[in-house]
Amino acid sequence: MAQPIGSTPLASPVPVISPHFCAPYPVDLAIVRKVLTITDGNFVVTDVNGNVLFKVKGPVFSMHDRKVLLDVSGNPIVTLRQKIMSAHNRWQVFRGDSSEAKDLLFSAKQSSIIQLKAKLDVFLANNTAEEVCDFKVKGSWLERSCVIYAGESSTVVAEMHKKHTVQSVFLGKDKFMVTVHPNIDYAFIVALIVILDEINRGDSNN
Which of 1, 25, 4 is closest to 13 using CA atoms? Predict the structure, then answer.
């Protein structure tokens, strides 16, 4: 059985997607979701200086069951797909633009079928038994106040918090900040937040 990440020290990088996205210092990200566009649910992710790091896009006029995380040049980093007919609203994340089992990096599912708070259990691809999750997300998505933990431990690997500005409300943009702790794959954290947003939007449409 795969050991949960929380049982090992986080002094060394935890590259879920790539070591390229693991920094030895905290990384602050600004995530802006465009609210009033025809491709609602698409994101732009920047650093604190406004430099674009990632974009998140989904096919226009398609079901909300597929998203692609792109680098600044438009190259696909990972593809996020919702697993159809899954009781716990499970999403699977694959390397690049693949959706093949051999390219599976991790999956995430709601901790329970009915829940008021944002709670996700995250399993890396090699954790096939899924007896213990590798990461856990807890908090309130409505308030954009979520914390991501390593496994079942109390070790925090990332935190998100809302940032309200008059300009963002006027422009129809939903902006929130994420602090990713040292040595944690920040592309992985962005992918988790996209999944949280998709689950929340799916629930609000029901």
Answer: 25
Cα–Cα dist 187/16, whole Å = 9
Cα 105 from Cα 123, distance rounded (Å): 9
9 or 135: which carries more pLDDT confidence? 135
Task: Examine the pLDDT at 96 and tell me if it is beyond 70.
Answer: yes
Q: What domains, with CATH codes, occur in the chain?
A: 26-205 (2.40.160.200)
Question: Phi first, then psi: what are they for 8, rounded to 5°?
Answer: -115, 150
The whole-model pTM stands at: 0.84
Full DSSP string of 55-123: EEE--TTS-TTEEEEEETTS-EEEEEEEPTT-TT--EEEEETT--SGGGEEEEEEESSSS-SSEEEEEE
- For residue range 149-164, list pLDDT tens digits in order: 999 899 999 998 876 5
